[in-house]
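Supplementary Text 2. Reproducibility record for the structural model of the 256-residue chain.

All settings were left at their defaults, and a single model was retained for analysis rather than an ensemble. We include the record here because the model underlies the residue-level annotations in Supplementary Table 4.
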Amino acid sequence: MARSLIENSPEVSQISDALTAWFDGEIKSSMASRNAILDNFATWHQWLKMPLTNPSNGNYRRPSGHTDRLRVFTDQGFVRRPWDDQVFARQIFCAQMFVSGLFRNECMLLSSNQEEYLKRRGGTNPVGISIAQVVGNRLRQLKDAGKNPAFQLTTKPTITFGDLAERTHFMNNRMPRVLQLLHTYGADEVSREQSPTVTMLRETQKDWISLATDYILYAAQTREGGLADVPFWEPKSISEDPQIYYPFREVEPTAA
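Retained model, structure tokens:
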């Protein structure tokens, strides 16, 4: 009999460990890639002072490209071929990239110089919040909603791919508002450990991780091998042609 998916179960640990390893790998690869400009403290703070939609504003240009891309990926790929591992891994990848980008913004906002930013961004927790707690909370929410009271990987899917597509569009459409609020209030909240903007960034991170958890759970429940058959893309820029790997079979991702 499959073990129940509860907050402290091995399955929750596996999911949170796989996500943590991915985020850690993405930070390392992004700092060494063509996207290293995103980790430049002075440049980011120049962007923060610009109007959000200024064509030179990297805080708008890159994320808006990501939201446009995810919309197409979801409608033209995922809802048509949810069984395709490339398509599925790409959906999880997009959610992961939003989480990483939000944490980058948080680290930039809280830091007073480049050295402090690098220390925050490269710390022991690659997203700054408890991934295990988010995963456990999401599974508990599903249980309370009666979607899958037993939380067993051998049961039918907890949610449908239609549910996933709907939540993906909801989160995707939310991102422009998040960025607008960051640019409206962020410049007045630099280096403040507790602020409405930091709270907003963290809560949005949690919601993307929760969505990634749903994707992982759905894949585990619709593939013969369970968690072992859940596909990820490597933690590096999409322009660097990330390949599929299976994090629940392997120790950690290869970002090189």
